[in-house]
Amino acid sequence: MEPHTVTASASGAYGAANEMLGAVWTLASWGYANLWWLALAAALLMAGWEVLQRRLALKALAERTCVELVPSAQFTPGDEEIWRQGMQVIRAAGSGPWWTPRRARTVRLRLRADGSRPLSYRIEAPASARALLALTPFGPRVQVSESAPLADKMRTHVVRAVLTLHGKPGSRLREVPLDPDPLQPLVDAVAGIRSSLGDLAEVCVDLSPAPRWHLAVRRLQILQQARARARREAVREARSLGGEPATSLPTAIGRLLDPAAWRNPGRAPVLLPPHAQRINRDRALGKFAQDAGLMRVQILVRCASNAEGRAEQQLALINAAMDLYAGDSRIGSRGISLGPWRIGPDWWPWRPRFDERWATALMRPARGGWARIDELAGLLKPPTSAARLPVVEAQMPTYKAGQDLLPQGWYRAPDGRERLLATHEDDTLFEVQSGKAGWGKTMRAQVQAVASAHNGHGLAFVDPHGDSFHEVARYLAHDDIEARIRLFDLTVREPDAMLACWNPLDMTSGPQPHEATAAVIDAIATALGWSDITAPRALTILTKTVEALVAVNVCAVTVGAGEQQATLFQIRPLLTEPAFRHLALKSLDADARRWWNSSFPDLPKDALVTVLNPLDRLAASPVIRAFLGCPISGYDIRRAMDEQHVVWICPPGTGPTDRLLISLIVRDFLRAGLSRRDLPERSRSPFRFYLDELISLDGAASTVAEITEQLRKFGCRLHGMTQLLHRLSPATRTALLQNASCLSTTAGSAEAIAQITGEWAGKVTVADAAELERWWHYASFTVAGKRIGPLLVRGPALTEVFDHLARPRQTKALLRAAHNNSAARTLDDRTAQALAQTEQVRTFLTTLPPAPATTGSGTDDAEEQYA
Fold it and tell me: Residues 438-466, buried b or exposed e (16+ Cβ, 10 A)?
């Protein structure tokens, strides 16, 4: 190439460069001259962009879906399930429309306590994530239901807080195990919420996916800070070894104080160049090392109340609950404390920004608001089975007289407040109490019985000990109860003591003859263990004799001779006296007489002994003979059910003979309850049976099981108490536990307690219950169809619940009313009437016309055989 050509090219490039530099200089000069205008234009562009972003964010956040997660009592998630839930939540946060700004790509976890439940758990996400949130990885033990947005009423006092993560960049929160539940401190913090005071506490955890560019910048900052720290450490180490004396004040002072330096003043220091150690990237980045599971976090807290000071107290407790996560990093409140003042979100100008974020879930995380799924695992799930959830009043009401409630026990909440828990009358169907004698089972039942009586409902309390009526009398001595009270006390001994009577064969109240017959036969057979296999002949004889005596009584009532009805004690003359039997057969129809004429004569004499022996044992007791041996009953349990009587039954004891009597009574409960099928369902007023000492009903165990299985729809309820539940027959025990709406146990033997604790899925161990002090119970309840508990409660006492109702001076009047209402007479009068009743029946039978002749033979032979 020629020289002039090269020179021309160089000069051309030089000229172009000069022109470009000139243009740049001109542009710079113009920009400098118009700097304010450019700044204004840039500000306008940024403001416009911010307005656009804000409007798009608010539009996206206005279209949200809300789901509520309600865990079962057995909900126990694992680490993998929580990780999947966290990833699903992050995915839901980014599922909005494509134009959604980053600040609006959020999911809100709302933990709320307002007194309606211990702690509700909601997830709020973009509307497009509805299908995603409906598929929870927690499985069937968490019920997911769509819910409407919350609309709270205004409270007088409101406090706010913004919680953020404090600590070195990349440091982690403490690893919190899942058992006990990480939410337990928060549950305890809001346990004192009282809806009556307008209390409300909410914690909102807003989560957003981590932007990649933001994460890259954050990593670069952390690495730069780590390298700077390493260089500072290297310099500090070099100085400590004698390097750079002129610039190291500690080193210079140390040299002046070192005698060796005085002896060798001319020796020059050895200069060591600083050398920084190599940075471990993953260790320096910490939780920022991996992308998966990393998210931005914003935690907002708001507490409110209508009572002064309660909102601040709740906020302090919630802040303390977050100390659970304190480790290398911690969750703490933002703000500045100046003496008694806390400058933070409650102050201007931060309050409007907080309220906006609270209302819209707009994400403005503070610096350091980053966390991984496993760090916040405790907040990514509802309360588990490991949590001890308190019982709030909305779940289980506090007992107040006159509200159709049954008191259950004193419950102490985590905040120390004690209240008397209660269940609704309609919810409390069947109850089983087990535990040591003298530990409060009977007292608890007495309190419930008194409450039910004052609620206007009927009940029958069977107490083999006989003391309970005298204990409750002062609390029942009110006019409305005196009109309904009935007392059947078989523990009397004095001749002038008052005693009512009961004839199971009495037809004056109009029962169906076949129902009365079946009730008596089933009661005796059940108590004695008879069946078609073990005692077929005894059952046949008993059936025919009871049918015959019921037929006699039907005839007597028809002609107005109710005082001449037969009782159970006329079974003996019917079987053993030919003359009496001949008269009784006149009341039977032809089919019934045919058995007596054809089959009865062929029975061996010892077959009758099996039937007569238990009746003779009943007749051997003067009180039982007087109670069962009179013709017209003062005891009518069907009438008591329909008219809501308060019936107190005190059997004489728990021996074999007494068990037969109790079996008759309990079987009559079943008969009367089933007979209510002739009433419309709305007319079947509730009626409760309280059976103390279920072991004494061992012979009637199958009857107890039938009551729980069949009488619910007829308005009948059963409360059973026993020391040893495992001594009941398996069928009865299973029926009681299957249908019990309330279960409770006091202290006792391990074998006895295990029957109850086994129903609670390990929430209460045998050792827990065995160590209970007197009057304390573990109990579970059914309220509004939901099971509550088991809870530790203290059994209520009559004096502390109904002291305002006590009328000790009216107890004698109550006792008189109880005897008058049950048509009681003195023991001597009843005994005399019972002993003369066979002759009364015989007299009536002689007035009946002769029975029509029947075909067959053997009547005379039978009379001679059993004469």
Answer: ebbbbbbbbbbbbbbbbbebbbbbbbbeb
